[in-house]
Amino acid sequence: MMENFVFLAKDAPELARPGQFAEHFFLFDPPASLIRTRQFAELTARDIVVRHGECSLLARAFRDEAVPQDPYGEPASVMPERIRAGLVAASKPKRGRRV
What we know:
This is Vanillate O-demethylase oxygenase-like C-terminal catalytic domain-containing protein. By secondary structure, this protein is mainly α. The protein has a domain at 1-69. It is built from 5 helices and no strands. The protein has helices at residues 8-11, 13-25, 30-52, 57-62, 78-91. Helix 2 packs antiparallel against helix 3. The longest helix is centred in the middle third of the chain and has 23 residues, at 30-52. The radius of gyration is 23 Å and the shape is flat. The mean pLDDT is 77.
């Protein structure tokens, strides 16, 4: 087994374990390796945001804090209506010449 993630064990063990599992399962179980690689990437992104982006909007979202809504944006209740309208429009057959 390769040891590419051992250096993380001291400072970030929550990152080291998924990385080590991804590396371990690479040859024996590729789907499991992909899952662990994705977990590693998500945890790494979260760690970077928390360590270096304390004031950023993304950091607040990762901590499940409320983020300010755009005052010019539409309310969330409008979106399902727009989706339904788009689906209805897309399902109607188009009239015209056949090629």
